[in-house]
Fold this sequence. Notes:
Blueprint: E1 21-24, E2 29-32, E3 35-36, H1 37-43, H2 46-55, H3 61-73, H4 79-86, H5 94-108, H6 117-141, H7 156-165, H8 171-184, H9 191-201, H10 206-217, H11 225-236, H12 242-251, H13 269-285, H14 289-305, H15 314-324, H16 332-353
Antiparallel strand pairs: 1-2, 2-3
Helix pairs in contact: 1-8, 2-8, 2-16, 3-6, 5-6, 5-10, 6-7, 6-16, 7-8, 8-13, 8-15, 8-16, 9-10, 9-16, 10-16, 11-15, 13-15
Amino acid sequence: MAVCDYQIGLEGIPAAQSKISHVDGQEGILEYRGVSIQALAQSSSFLETAYLLIWGDFPQEAELEDFKHDITYHRRVKYRIRDMMKCFPESGHPMDALQASAAALGLFYSRRALDDPAYIRAAVVRLLAKIPTMVAAFQHIRKGNDPIQPCDDLDYAANFLYMLNEQTPDPLLAHIFDICLILHAEHTMNASTFSARVTSSTLTDPYAIVASAVGTLAGPLHGGANEEVISMLEEIGSVENVQPYVDSLLARKAKIMGFGHRVYKVKDPRATILQKLAEQLFDKLGGDKYYDIAVEMERVVADRLGHRGIYPNVDFYSGLVYRRMGIPTDLFTPIFAIARVAGWLAHWKEQLEANRIYRPSQIYIGDHNRPYIPIEER
Length: 378
Ligand code: SDX
């Protein structure tokens, strides 16, 4: 391969052929299996969307009922996983706890039969069912409390909020949270999905795949940006401070968290929907001064960087929604992971359908023929 073929960050290089999702970054279009994100956010549920992503078609009513039933049935995690989490330091980040717990599932479900559709379905069900339980469990364990067991009467989103707060959530909050999960479920060849596909290509188990993807999602340039946005809004503190804050970041050539995207050169359509959800939530629960700061920030950044295609991404408004729901900031990225498990598993399945191990090349730019120098002569 010639040196001119190399693109730092693999920008513009296709890493797979995929039918799972599509982004048009100029028009601000996102589709899952050809269905617009707006239609799914309006009418679907997270589990129906996960089914669509993973199996390629909307489920029939009975298929969806079976899928929901099986996920509800598998929500509990083994006491040994909970005991393992009790050994984690309480100061540890919940994304690290999730990565370790997801990997640990592989110890308990070690049978691997990648050519058996029943095995694939069981692994999908188990991961979608147990990841939220593990996120909520660590939240209680790190405070020295016992985890709250899942509630079989509640659907996916409501059950997660219940496990977090030991209280059945308001239906509007549960509905908004479910839409947030839909919005975060999949997004073409982002870094964590690429990681999932590379790991899948070695024919390892799905727990290792999800663990590798969780580790990738955690970074502040990817899913971790949603936490950083809230720290930034808190640091800004008032609408008047937005402009000097943005200008000082730009003067230092620092990145503004929650803005910019490799693919979108307009406002991320998920950010538009999340902003509306934030407004719905504030109508119900009362306003939030951080929302006013965020809106002003969007205006100032558009003024300074809009001509370069830098607008809010999915991580900009999501944190404001979760914060108003009373969710701790360091759970925002684990919540992103709960949703993205659907996309990672869809890519796992697609990768297996036409697998070849990922093994790109590199352009070696180091030395050759260096002599070995004995340690006493260095
Ligand atoms: C997610 O890929 C996906 O699909 C990811 C995701 C998903 O659903 O999976 O959408 C989720 O990860 C959202 C992104 C969350 N990250 C952030 O909000 C962090 C802040 N954003 C940036 O660091 C950045 O925009 C990235 C990481 C999102 C994209 O990085 P790129 O494509 O490598 O772009 P770049 O860093 O090379 O920036 C290109 C130019 C630079 O200017 P020049 O050096 O050319 O002069 O744009 C500038 C950058 O400085 N720029 C920014 C900026 N983002 C880009 N300048 C200030 N603030 C920003 N946020």
